[in-house]
Design brief:
- The structure holds 2 protein chains of 2 kinds.
- Helices cover about 65% and strands about 0% of the residues of chain A.
- Chain A is mostly helical.
- Chain A is elongated, with a radius of gyration of 22 Å.
- The mean pLDDT of chain A is about 90.
- Chain B has 3 domains: about 1-45; about 55-290 and about 455-515, FAD/NAD(P)-binding domain, CATH 3.50.50; about 295-450, Flavocytochrome C3, Chain A, domain 1 (Alpha-Beta Complex), CATH 3.90.700.10.
- Chain B is built from 14 helices and 21 strands.
- In chain B, helix 4 (about 70-80) runs parallel beside helix 7 (about 185-200).
- Chain B is elongated and about 75 Å long.
- The chains are: A mainly alpha, B alpha+beta.
- At the A-B interface, helix 1, helix 4, helix 11 and helix 12 of A face helix 1 and helix 7 of B.
- The complex binds flavin-adenine dinucleotide and iron/sulfur cluster (SF4) (2 copies).
- Flavin-adenine dinucleotide (FAD) binds near residues 98, 243, 309 and 496 of chain B.
């Protein structure tokens, strides 16, 4: 379906829900909806990103399919949400990355891995790929590594900030000062605990009307796993530059203490989320975005897996090739970060901040209406 | 590639299914004689498998519950907890299980103190006074007071069965003290009850309406269900009839309303056809309640024939005027607060030609009431509005001019009985009368929307059916809409339908189990 159709359907549903309101207590979406009487594109993009896709309002709705009113809030908001990632992406030239996101990310990753393998081989004697010295920096000097990854991280950050700015403006966040300290703190708490990914208190719905899903747990493993890995890399870089203390680090040093549980989280979390996705009732999924979702989970999973593998094989002849794969994956992860599902976290956080602000102000944000 | 991987994983998951089915059947459902055939279909083509459950009812159970709504599930859970084997037969498919309970949002129970969800106490006497008032005395006081006393236990009990509550919904503040709102609404409530029932080992069969019963002089013997085109006879030691009213049976409604019933819309399930009620009455059970009456409100005429639910209701009568097909007003739109008057408008519209009417208002009022499913018909002039509604233009303009001319100046306040009224009309509007003169102009077409019927089976405090010949039924109990007429002979108080179902459902289940176990 075209993005415009998805917005239209979301507008229809929000009107239906606003005259029903039975789901008011399930999550933040419905109270935010009740503050409004009509719904512009900015409002709908806000509500869509506020939705965590827990599925409760689908199994609780007396009008969900096969009822002729065909009320399917989780699926419709999922579609609008995914469309919004595309429409806010910066620069515009890269927006088509979202159209066949799975393929695009897979291609970038493959190229990136190949480039690292080739790079190592050309730079040195190809034999170095099979060396078992345990010394990463003989393959790629630390400065080169830090420079390359620093640059791509900065780029990703810039692109994400630009996208976020467009979103923030579109949802009218400033009109209720959603950027204030209190609302950001509330949003941080809500996001960190995944407050709304619990089906209104009993857990998410996935396959049927029984709340049996563990998505919140797996999401925590993925998110905190990622943060731990990030912390591991950051502490490593600090050790290197500030204390002149290069890798490898011992088992009890911070980079390892962060990295190992982080890597494990990044393997188990995405696997659990993928399993849930495959079992999910098709009515609640956005089939067109299966590639995007899968690519995101796969990238997380591979980052964790190759990181752990690298640690295990570092003293063996497989070190060189494993390092190339790991760096290739991580490079691709950052390069595609603004153009894949990764951005969901930022938009969701922004939506939660606006929700907190609207609750405090007890009025809806003012969005710009395109007529 | 991805879809291939997906099918491999899906296949793997499916391979585990027989194991889990076996596990569930042999650990949970001790009264289950469910025959589950797992059939693999076109695996090559779709990479998925479909599970086909051939449900064969048992030949005999302790307690047979007919119906699948609140009353039925409360009875089934209680009977099962009382040690009986229980079979629930539901006429509707799984998605539509639970009839009108699916559409509910709250229940009214007496309580002594405020709670997390209720803003203050609601004592038994106050509840009784409310009930007495709305029914205008058409209630069995002994039974009603007994129900109200029992309703106190219902809130904690039903929460134990997994049902969750929340404070009153936006726009329903006036019910915040008396009514407990279900988190997620009636379908969420039902999902919780079904989950509990299944965990306890209650067997449920969908798409299996009871089509006949064998009753021997006030003693129930068996019922016949039709499932997948096959008839199965189930013998039971006790019967709980909880199959709702007959509001979806237009032919039956015609007995009270004549051909007009063809133009009625049914707000809830199409499955409440009253077949069970009829079978019981035909077998000598004593009836109660007015067979010619039903609870009817004015709902959007564009709503589907059945199951339009809550979102087709309109709360804007007090803000405008209401005209019939001849563009004439027919009742004082501002007589009293809307919650006190909304239930008369169904009958008022039913009395109009063609059973249709139009609520007309202007730009001033558009945002003053809860939105509903369909947008109002909109026009830039009253003449254009008449044309869009296909009303006689001249008569329409005359009615509006007369009305507008009769409006006296006043201070509009829809939260009190204000002083905005008309003067000099044959039919006045007593409050909230404002000139309809600000474009754009709006209208909602409305028709009678039937909520439930009053005719039911007479019961006693044990929810035991009473027989027309004076005796008591030996082993037949009734709960919910099918016996609501005992306490609700007329009128309605929000949330009482669910209270009747839960209180008498629980009693019926308990007695039915006791009866079955001797
Ligand atoms: C739109 C709407 C909103 C409402 N809101 C509220 C509210 O907020 N609070 C409130 O208290 N009340 C409300 N009511 C009234 C309330 O729905 C009923 O009072 C209540 O559902 C009655 O419960 P029950 O279990 O007796 O019947 P139902 O819930 O209607 O269940 C009857 C069941 O019997 C089944 N059945 C019918 N015939 C057969 C057969 N032959 N064999 C097997 N099964 C059969 C049906 O499929 C159905 O599952 C509302 C009603 C409507 C229409
Ligand atoms: S999802 Fe369904 S039940 Fe929930 S508010 Fe919307 S219409 Fe009502
Ligand atoms: S899927 Fe969950 S989070 Fe999204 S709108 Fe429905 S209840 Fe809210």
């Amino acid at each position: 379906m075209h993005a415009v159709d998805n917005l239209k359907e979301a507008e229809r549903l929000m009107t239906v829900c606003n005259s029903c309101r039975y789901c008011e207590g399930l999550c933040a979406v419905f109270p935010a909806m009740e503050l409004r009487r009509d719904f512009g594109d900015g409002d709908l993009n806000y509500l869509a990103n506020l939705c965590h896709g827990c599925g409760a309002c689908y199994v609780d709705c007396q009008f969900s399919p096969p009822h002729e009113f065909n009320v399917n809030v989780p699926q419709t908001l999922a579609k609008v949400r995914a469309d919004s990632y595309r429409s806010y992406a910066w620069p515009k030239a890269f927006q088509p990355m979202f159209d066949r996101n799975g393929t695009a990310i897979a291609a970038v990753t493959a190229i990136s891995i190949a480039a690292f393998i080739l790079g190592f081989a050309l730079w040195h004697d190809p034999a170095v790929l099979a060396s078992n010295s345990g010394q990463f920096y003989r393959l790629m000097p630390h400065n080169a590594m830090a420079g390359l990854f620093g640059a791509i991280t900065l780029y990703a950050l810039l692109a994400i900030i630009m996208g976020f700015r467009a979103f923030w403006k579109d949802i009218g966040a400033s009109s209720v000062s959603a950027g204030s300290g209190l609302t950001l703190w509330q949003a941080t708490k809500d996001a960190a605990g995944l407050r709304y990914l619990d089906g209104g208190g009993v857990g998410c719905y996935n396959k049927d009307e029984k709340p049996t899903d563990n998505r919140r747990l797996f999401h925590h493993l993925t998110f905190y796993g990622f943060m731990l890995c990030f912390a591991a890399t950051t502490t490593g870089t600090i050790y290197h530059y500030m204390f002149d203390w290069p890798a490898p680090y011992g088992w009890t040093e911070l980079p390892k203490l962060f990295g190992i549980p982080g890597g494990i989280g990044l393997v188990i979390g995405p696997a659990g989320l993928m399993h849930a996705k495959l079992k999910r009732h098709p009515d609640m999924l956005d089939p067109a975005r299966f590639g995007m979702d899968t690519a995101f989970l796969a990238m997380m999973f591979m980052t964790g897996l190759t990181g752990l593998a690298l640690m295990l094989v570092r003293e063996t002849a497989a070190m060189g090739i494993t390092l190339a794969i790991h760096l290739g994956v991580v490079f691709a992860l950052f390069a595609t970060m603004p153009y894949g599902k990764f951005v969901h976290g930022f938009y969701r956080f922004g939506a939660l901040a606006l929700y907190a602000a609207e609750r405090r102000a007890d009025r809806p944000a003012k969005t710009i209406r395109k007529t | 590639m991805i879809s291939h991987m997906r099918s491999i994983v899906a296949r793997f998951v499916d391979l585990l299914k027989p194991l889990s089915t076996f596990y569930q059947e042999n650990t949970v459902g001790d009264c289950c004689i469910r025959l589950c055939a797992i059939v693999y279909i076109d695996f090559q083509q779709t990479g998925t498998t479909r599970e086909m459950c051939v449900q064969v009812p048992p030949k005999e159970v302790d307690v047979l519950v007919i119906g699948g709504g609140n009353a039925a599930l409360c009875a089934a859970i209680t009977a099962r907890r009382g040690g009986a084997t229980v079979l629930v037969v539901e006429a509707a498919p799984k998605f539509y299980r639970g009839g009108n309970t699916r559409h509910t949002r709250n229940m009214r129970c007496a309580h002594d103190t405020a709670t997390d969800h209720l803003t203050g106490p609601y004592g038994e006497d106050e509840f009784w006074n409310d009930l007495h008032r709305v029914t205008e005395g058409h209630t069995d006081e002994d039974l009603a007071r007994y129900m109200i006393a029992q309703s106190k236990d219902i809130l904690p009990w039903i929460a134990q069965q997994g049902v969750r509550f929340q404070p009153s919904l936006g726009g329903t503040l006036s019910l915040g003290r008396t009514n407990s709102f279900f988190l997620g609404g009636g379908r969420a409530m039902l999902n919780a009850l079904y989950l509990t029932a299944e965990r306890l080992g209650v067997q449920v069969i969908y798409e299996a309406p009871a089509v006949s019963v064998e009753i021997d002089n006030g003693a129930f013997r068996s019922a016949t269900l039709r499932s997948n085109g096959t008839d199965y006879t189930v013998r039971a030691k006790s019967l709980v009839a909880a199959a709702g009213g007959y509001e979806a049976n237009i032919d039956w409604l015609k007995q009270g309303w004549g051909e007009r019933a063809d133009n009625f819309l049914i707000r809830g399930t199409p499955y409440n056809r009253g077949d069970v009620l009829k079978m019981l009455l035909d077998n000598g059970v004593l009836p109660i309640g007015d067979p010619t009456q039903c609870h009817a409100v004015a709902i959007d005429a564009r709503a589907p024939k059945f199951d339009g639910g809550i979102i087709t209701r309109l709360d804007c009568v007090v803000f405008g005027i209401v005209v019939n097909r001849d563009a004439e007003r027919f009742y004082d739109e501002g007589e009293d607060f809307w919650p006190r008057r909304y239930a008369i408008w169904g009958r008022l519209v039913a009395a109009q030609p063609g059973q249709i009417a139009y609520i007309v208002f202007d730009a001033k009022s558009l945002k003053m009431f809860m939105p509903s499913l369909f947008p109002p018909v909109e026009a830039n002039s009253l003449a254009e509005l008449a044309a869009k509604l296909e009303l006689p233009a001249e008569a329409f303009l005359k009615t509006l001019t007369e009305f507008n001319d009769a409006v006296r100046p006043g201070t509009f306040d829809h939260t009190e009985l204000d002083d905005c009224r008309t003067e000099g009309l044959a039919l006045q509007k007593s409050h909230w009368a404002r000139r309809i003169d600000e474009a754009p102009f709006y209208a909602y077409p409305v028709r009678p929307g039937i909520t439930f019927t009053y005719l039911g089976t007479r019961v006693d405090r044990d929810a035991r059916m009473q027989m027309a010949n004076g005796g008591k039924a030996e082993n037949m109990f009734a709960a919910g809409e099918i016996m609501a007429g005992n306490v609700l002979g007329r009128g309605y108080a929000a949330g009482i339908g669910m209270t009747i179902g839960s209180v008498f459902g629980r009693i019926a289940g308990e007695r039915a189990a006791q009866n079955a176990r001797g």
